[in-house]
Amino acid sequence: MRRAYANKCCVTGAENGLEAAHIRPFAVCKKTRLAISVKNGFLVTAGLHRLYDKHQWSIEPEKGVAVFGERLKKDPFWGKLDGKEVDFPKQEEDRPFTHLLRELFTEFLRKQTI
């Protein structure tokens, strides 16, 4: 994951405190090859990872931009990242599966309306 993303957060560009965020949760796919596939995740800061797992932001799969929930859009730090293009790897084999991003983005939108 670090090699694919050149050791940088794909949203902020930060080089420290990075974690691999699973698109489809590890617990769901742990018995499959998808669990360790670079195509089932992306590299972000620890803070973004936690917020992602709580469905506070997501990646719009068609445009490839970060989308934050209403509460975070109002935050002076996180709000600046809303709509920012995600820096995915240049190599297609290292890019996340679009269908997985679509699944989680749909879940993000559903949670925003609850």
Give the strand content.
Answer: 15-25%
Number of helical elements: 4
> Strand tally, please?
4
Low-pLDDT segments: none
Output the structural class: alpha+beta
Question: What is the string of SSEs from the N terminus onward?
Answer: EHEHEEHH
Helix content: 25-40%
How many structurally independent domains? 1
Q: What would the average pLDDT be, to the nearest integer?
A: 90
Largest sheet: 2 strands, antiparallel
**Spatial gap, N to C terminus:** 33 Å
**Order of strands side by side in the largest beta sheet?**
1-2
Shape: globular
- Radius of gyration of CA atoms, rounded to a whole number: 13 Å
List keywords for this structure.
114 residues, 4 strands
Structure overview:
The protein has 114 residues and is of the alpha+beta class. The chain has one domain. The protein has 4 helices and 4 strands, in the order E-H-E-H-E-E-H-H. The protein has helices spanning 26-29, 46-53, 70-73, 98-112; strands at 18-22, 41-45, 57-60, 65-68. The strands form 2 sheets. It has a two-stranded antiparallel ribbon. Strands 3-4 form a two-stranded antiparallel sheet. The longest helix is centred in the last third of the chain and has 15 residues, at 98-112. The protein starts with 17 loop residues before the first strand and ends with a helix. The model has no long low-confidence stretch (mean pLDDT 90).
